[in-house]
Amino acid sequence: MGNGVGAAAAMEDVRASFAALTALTAKDAALASAGASGAAGDGVDVLRRAYEIRLERMHVTRKLQAQLSALQARDASDAVDLQHAMTPPDAPLHERTYTEISTVEEIAGILTISSGAASAFVAQSRLVCALPPVMDALSAGSLTWQQAKIFADETEALEHTAAVAVVEHFLDPDAPNPARGCPAAELVPARLRAKVRGWRERRHPESIEKRHRKSVADRRVEYTPDRDGMAWISAYLPADTAQAIWNRTTAIARGLQAPGEHRTLPQRKADVLANQLLTHRTPAHQEDTGTGIATATAAAFTTEPGKVPTPRTEVLVTVPVFALLGLTDEPAELDGYGPIPASMARKLLANGAESFRRVLVDPSDGTPLEIGRTSYRLTKAMKKALQLRDGKCTFPGCNNNSLDNETDHLQAWQHGGTTGISNLAQLCPKHHHLKHNSRWTPTPATKNEPPGWTSPTGRHYQAEQADKEPTYWPPGCLPSNTSPFEDALLQVLSG
Q1: Distances (CA, A) of 145 to 9, 141, 193, 195
Q2: Measured distance CA(461)–CA(109) in Å, rounded
Q3: What's the CA gap between 351 and 342, in Å, rounded?
Q4: 243-279: per-residue pLDDT in tens?
Q5: Which stretches of the chain score pLDDT less than 70?
Q6: What is the dihedral of CA 346, 348, 352, 358, to 10 degrees?
Q7: Quick one: angle between helices 160-171 and 132-140, nearest 10?
């Protein structure tokens, strides 16, 4: 349960942010007054300063909202603890249960949210309050409530010490092995969740292999009606199957682009998916005479998870060396998705799925070791290297993955830029055009690190670099009797 000192310190932070907000508003009023009287000078400078004040005010407001969220989370957690403290220790279980339900209902009424939303908020508040580094960052205004919830969600199944270790990796610069690249507080929620989840997967008490086997049994397709005569179809599938479906749909939709094609890429993807499903016929082309809809026996559609056509577009599968050998169960990385079980990666690569390109990582430090040798053309090799280094569009907060991105010269060719990986980066079409039509400027990249970015107002955003770490070395390191496949792999690794 929180204490008065913590609440008092939090209120001081809130007052400081509110004072900064008040000062900015006063500056804006003075600027408007001077402009109205003609005493402000150059009109362009007045507009620029007014623009900058609004950006600064949004920054302070974001900080203030986070600080208020910290107060609200602390109060919600404390309210439940106080109710528990007021309930007699010998009270029957049902009385304690209904007391907690009553507290949640009261919080729901105060916040004008549903009971379910209030219950989730209380649970998240208690998780956040149990993680001091997260609560401190939230109280300081550096983490938003949405970011704080991600830490709570992704560490919920871990032991407390393991959960704190994951949090400290991202929030404590003095941690034994701190996260590199863009700070957690500057990552958009989707990117933060991906990084936290990837780090957590290696430390979960139950391996990803076991959890994946349980989850496969839950695969399903869901239908949700929506307004305006529309509806959603969603499928919960193994990652490799879902990724293959997505890539195949994208590849076909891109192939439909032609002069006179008026549909957008998302529209073409939707049409491709509907066409692929609704024009399917059984080998015997059996028709339901009553409805005219094609039907099929269960056997005609029975298939194992992942046994679907793979796209021609290539996807990188980053596999720790020992996991590929089957000596460890470290998660592999599926480009565009994230961590997958090592067994899934081994199956994809062993079955010769041509659309998946193997990427081995060095066991000593986790860096890329080899990107396959099926292509020797420089442009393709550099493209694969960029996919591996960047993983997505390098613009701050953009999640566009490798499949849809374009290669851009950071320093333009006509201005002396070279065609080397240190002068190249992946950009989605939207941010590629933005770079060439605004004052958003990339910072220098390196062979191993993508560029950061500087906004037109001078705000700097660090590169979102993946956290590479050494692979696990299994006991005995390598078996004495290896298969021909393993011998071949060892020859590749030894050069």
Answers
A1: 18, 9, 13, 17
A2: 40
A3: 14
A4: 888 888 988 998 888 888 999 999 999 999 998 888 8
A5: 1-5, 35-44, 203-207, 280-316, 336, 351-382, 402-403, 465-495
A6: -70
A7: 40
Burial bucket for residue 192 (CB in 10 Å: 0-12, 13-18, 19+) = buried
Asked if 182 and 463 touch (Cβ cutoff 8 Å), the reply is yes
What pLDDT was estimated at residue 344?
A: 81
- How far apart are the C-alpha atoms of 106 and 110, rounded to whole Å? 6
Which amino acid is present at 348? L
CA dist., res. 272 & res. 71, Å (int): 49
Distance CA 372, CA 246 (A): 23
Residue with tokens 């400027």: 441
- Retrieve residue 35's tokens: 């402009």
Q: 132 with 6: CB under 8 angstroms?
A: no
Task: Choose among 244, 226, 211: nearest CA to 337.
Answer: 244
Looking only at the bridges linking them, the beta strands covering 406-409 and 332-334 are: unpaired
Which residues on neighbouring strands pair with residue 341, listed in sequence order? none
Please tell me the distance from the alpha carbon of residue 19 to that of residue 26, in angstroms, as a whole number. Answer: 10
User: Please, what sign has the CA dihedral across residues 191, 195, 198, 203?
Assistant: negative
Largest CA distance in the chain: 88
As a three-state string, the secondary structure of the chain is CCCHHHHHHHHHHHHHHHHHHHHHHHHHHHHHHHHHHCCCCCHHHHHHHHHHHHHHHHHHHHHHHHHHHHHHHHHHHHHHHHHHHHCCCCCCHHHHHHHHHHHHHHHHHHHCCCHHHHHHHHHHHHHHHCCHHHHHHHHHCCCCHHHHHHHHHHHCCCCHHHHHHHHHHHHCCCCCCCCCCCCHHHCCHHHHHHHHHHHHHCCCCCCHHHHHHHHHCCCEEEEEECCCCCEEEEEECCHHHHHHHHHHHHHHHHHCCCCCCCCCHHHHHHHHHHHHHHCCCCCCCCECCCCCCECCCHHHHCCCCCCCCCCCCCEEEEEEHHHHCCCCCCCEEECCCEEECHHHHHHHHHCCCCCEEEEEECCCCCCEEECCCCCCCHHHHHHHHHHHHHCECCCCCCCCEHHHCEEEECCCHHHCCCCCHHHEEEECHHHHHHHHCCCCEECCCCCCCCCCEECCCCCEECCCCCCCCCCCCCCCCCCCCCCHHHHHHHHHHCC
Question: In 3D, which of 248, 272, 403 has the Cα closest to residue 337?
Answer: 403
- For residue 308, what pLDDT is reported? 39
Give the chain's length: 495
pLDDT the model gives residue 136: 92
Shortest CA distance to 450 belongs to which of 402, 415, 483?
402
